[in-house]
UniProtKB/TrEMBL annotation:
This is UDP-N-acetylmuramoylalanine--D-glutamate ligase. Residues 307-420 form the Mur ligase C-terminal domain. Pathway: Cell wall biogenesis; peptidoglycan biosynthesis. GO terms for biological process: cell division; cell wall organization; peptidoglycan biosynthetic process; regulation of cell shape.
Length: 448
């Protein structure tokens, strides 16, 4: 069997290594520049590759194509493959063929990385033989080569789900569906929602689908009557039929044979959205038989990923939080809603067609200063000019931190939660978050 792999990043190279290990003929093509670390892996495995172009004669000679999630279906090379009726799949679909391990698959517009990391932490802390993979930045295919795990916790983006067909999760989690990446779905929420719901495809009664029963878009898109798996709805709002819900600081799980009550009071996660993330992760742990006390203890030791409501410093009773991953309005809403103290808010960057109206009430209630960090801040200023008492703007992260420090008073929170992409001033959201952290250390904590 001949395989062509489009894209030589983490997923593409992982798929290539798995294909080689299984004795398949494989060719890797990347229209951009391949990072040295990935070139080295391909060269060591004697896998032929090209960069800077797609040589169609080689690609279209394949029996199957594995494509990077970043390549849209409208790309010319994919269109040509479609004409020749060559199947195009994702790395996750490919990896799923080579293991009998159970998959815990997590998706949603917001919160999937936190929930994936938390679920993995709960299961690993309980002693399960578990690995982490997917959109989190680690290739599932490469991990499947050794096939030494019983469980994989896999974060899935809608782009990965689009090219998954036979893959089956043992437990699937859908956190929420809000508008994002709609340009890839002909600006159709219905198509985007259908993509997210692919996380639960091919399920039977032995498989579990945990979903947010409070999410209107999920309710609209999910046809529970024709669903073959076992549904486990979770809710903060008392949704009818919820099997996972919160009472005070406790998560209650009432799914038959998997009941439990878990105290979450030791968790360091902030905000209502993280209550949903916690319910989902606790629900997964209970479905895999983890004891209540074990889950509660693991919640206390969990450290979230960088750039996601990450507390980086407390100085003179002012807390500095890095939420650079919040690149859309919905994610910022969760941050503003979750923080109870007065906020000095740093926002801005490349606007993605944002509608800030949903943030205005929270801003009126909580935000005392808005520091606009971007090259074009007009939309932010227009949205919050009559709501937030003080608005400033800058293109310097250092100045933004210095100004925030001078305007914050004891008990305040300085929050970087941009609502925008980072590409006007930074390489990506990680770069922006790291620069914020460095500026806080240098200016606030006086570290060299």
């Amino acid at each position: 069997m001949k395989l062509a792999i489009l894209g030589a990043g983490e997923s593409g190279v992982g798929a290539a290594l798995l294909a080689k290990a299984k004795g398949l003929e494989v060719f890797v093509s990347d229209k951009g520049e391949i990072k040295e670390q990935y070139k080295a892996k391909l060269a060591t495995a004697a896998i032929p590759f090209e960069e800077g172009t797609h040589t169609l004669v080689n690609i279209l000679d394949a029996d199957e194509i594995i494509k990077s999630p970043g390549i849209p279906d409208k790309a010319a090379v994919i269109q040509e493959a479609t004409k020749k009726e060559i199947p195009v799949i994702s790395e996750i679909e490919f990896a799923g063929r080579y293991t009998n391990a159970k998959f815990i698959c997590i998706t949603g517009t917001n919160g999937k990385t936190t929930t994936t990391l938390l679920t993995y932490h709960l299961l690993k802390s309980a002693g399960l033989n578990v690995a982490l993979a997917g959109n989190i930045g680690e290739s599932l295919a490469e991990k499947v080569i050794d096939n030494k795990y019983d469980y994989y916790v896999v974060e899935l983006s809608s782009f990965q789900l689009d090219n998954m067909y036979q893959f089956q999760a043992h437990i699937a989690v859908l956190l929420n569906i809000t508008p994002d990446h709609l340009d890839r779905y002909n600006y159709s929420m219905e198509k985007y929602a259908a993509s997210k719901l692919r996380v639960a495809q091919n399920m039977t009664g032995a498989n579990f689908f945990l979903f947010n029963a409070d999410d209107e878009n999920i309710a609209k898109a999910f046809d529970s009557a024709s669903f073959g798996g076992t549904t486990v709805p979770f809710s903060l709002k008392g949704a009818e039929g919820a099997r996972v819900y919160m009472e005070g600081k406790e998560v209650k799980v009432t799914e038959k044979f998997y009941e439990g009550t878990v105290d979450t009071s030791a968790s360091g996660l902030i905000g209502r959205h993280n209550q949903y993330n916690t319910m989902a992760a606790v629900g997964v742990a209970k479905l895999l038989g983890v004891a209540d006390d074990t889950i509660g203890q693991a919640l206390e030791t969990f450290e979230n990923a960088e750039h996601r409501l990450q507390q980086i410093a407390v100085a003179k009773e002012v807390t500095y939080i890095n939420d650079s991953k919040a690149t859309n309005v919905e994610a910022v809403w969760y941050a503003l809603d979750g923080i109870k103290q007065p906020i000095v808010w740093i926002a801005g960057g490349v606007d993605k067609g944002n509608d800030y109206s949903t943030l205005q009430e929270l801003a009126r209630e909580k935000v005392k200063v808005l520091v606009c960090l971007g090259k074009d801040n007009e939309k932010l200023k227009e949205a919050f000019g009559r709501i937030v008492p003080i608005i400033a703007e800058t293109t310097s992260i250092e100045y933004a931190v210095r100004l925030s420090r001078s305007l914050a008073t004891p008990g305040d929170v300085v929050l970087l939660s941009p609502a925008c992409a980072s590409f006007d001033l930074f390489n990506n959201y990680e770069h922006r978050g790291q620069r914020f952290k460095e500026a806080v250390e240098k200016i606030v904590l006086k570290k060299k």
